[in-house]
# Entry
Amino acid sequence: MDFNPIVPTTMHVDINSCFATVEQQANPLLRGKPVAVAAYVKDYGCILAASREAKKLGVKTGMQVREGRSLAPHLVVLPPDPPKYRVVNRKLLRLLQSYTAYISVESIDEMVMNLANTPALDRQDMFGIARDIKTRIKHEIGDWITVSCGIATNRYLAKVASGLQKPDGLVAITRENILETFGTMKLTDFCGIKEGNGRRLMEAGIMTPLAFYRASVEDLKRAFHSVVGHHWWLRLHGYEDGSMYKEFSKDTKEDQKSFGQSYVLGTPYLPTDSRLWQILTQLTMKMGRRMRADGFAAYGVGISLMFIDHSHWHTQEKKTFPMFSDFDFYMNMRRMLMHAPERTVKMIAVYCYALHPDTDRQASLFPEENRKRDITCAIDAIQNRFGDFVIYPARMARMEQKVLDRISFGGVQGLPDVPFIEQVKHETAS
Amino acid sequence: MPETINEPVSVTLWSNHKTRKVIPYSLYWHGRQYHITTIGLHHTVWEGRHLFHIFSVSDGSTFFKLVMDSESLRWTLLEVDTIH
# Structure
């Protein structure tokens, strides 16, 4: 079997330097200047996105702010502003939905669309559609925002193609140019080939992308010691392997396996410190609200800690009854926290799993359980009306560290639609 | 870095029912009028059922982040930044 012979109809759209570009879009005075968006603007904050100007000076995602400033002394460092990025994400989704219904939102700045059998593809070819998308983004979302588009017969190669030319790229990987394209790449340019998989390939004598492409299914199975090798062969030959991505336009609620929240502590605390319990309260409230908004209760809860020495501790519990209220989540997790090692905590993560649709629940025979549920629903209704955390448990009073709104890597579940977008259009005032 | 202001401000809003465009045209702050030349981004934020329209705008040399409370129709100047 050779490279997939079908016409390429998959397009990966990636907003270049998303957070930094959106900040430059919002503030025209920042355009053309090195800008970084960092989790915290202090020296030890982690850079989440660097503008193309900052990248040219060597500033990279994952660096500390002080490293970035040492490379670019005039670096403008901004804190994240998630509502801006969510609005741009939703606007881009709407724009792409005018071409096809088959769209998968991979993250806040990446979307994949399948244009097979769409009227858009009857009107023009994939390159024409990509250029049309780029033009419309400039007019309808922001003139400073650029995207890199990758075209291929499967999603993996479309993603690889989108990374080959940045910013504002447009690259297709086809059966005609696959050898030439892979000939210019390194193994580590492939998404999913870093230290572990890179070492496995090296040990099997596969040193280049071309050797990777030319290896047989059996060779790759031996290299990866599993069926993963077969998946890699399919990916590289332009076929969908079914293991890597969610389905196009599938309702993500059906796939929801868990809800979680995490927080990196600016000031580390011990597990027995009541200030850590305040943070735990806030995390469980955020997690519980998201879970209930999607119509679930959970049988399982888990808690995970990372200590300042970078060691980890983790525990989880499954109950015989589904948990619904923040109070239940908090009490269970605080009890679990009491078993944690007495070491200083740097990061705390909470999650609930074993989800169960709340509509299928059986009414409790115990009045206190029903009261707890009613109070939880009342608190949710108050927050829905007046905003998050307008009402909160007394233990959260005088909190020193607030859990900030953040964009998670790789997931964009629960994004609200853009309101009133048709009523407000932007233009340069004359 | 933008400077946080959080002060009430007067804004002239320009609306065209034919083109369905609504833009802040100028703002009056600390005894001075600023003519807005660029709308960088408009986005919205919900606090409960309370909707806020946020406009990131510039007069060419100063950046302003304005918020309009859709319930009270009052404007607040959130941030100001000047050329770096």
Remarks:
- The interface with chain B takes residues 22, 25-30, 33, 41, 74, 76-78, 83-84, 87-88, 142, 383-388, 390, 416, 418-420, 422-429 of chain A (CB under 8 Å).
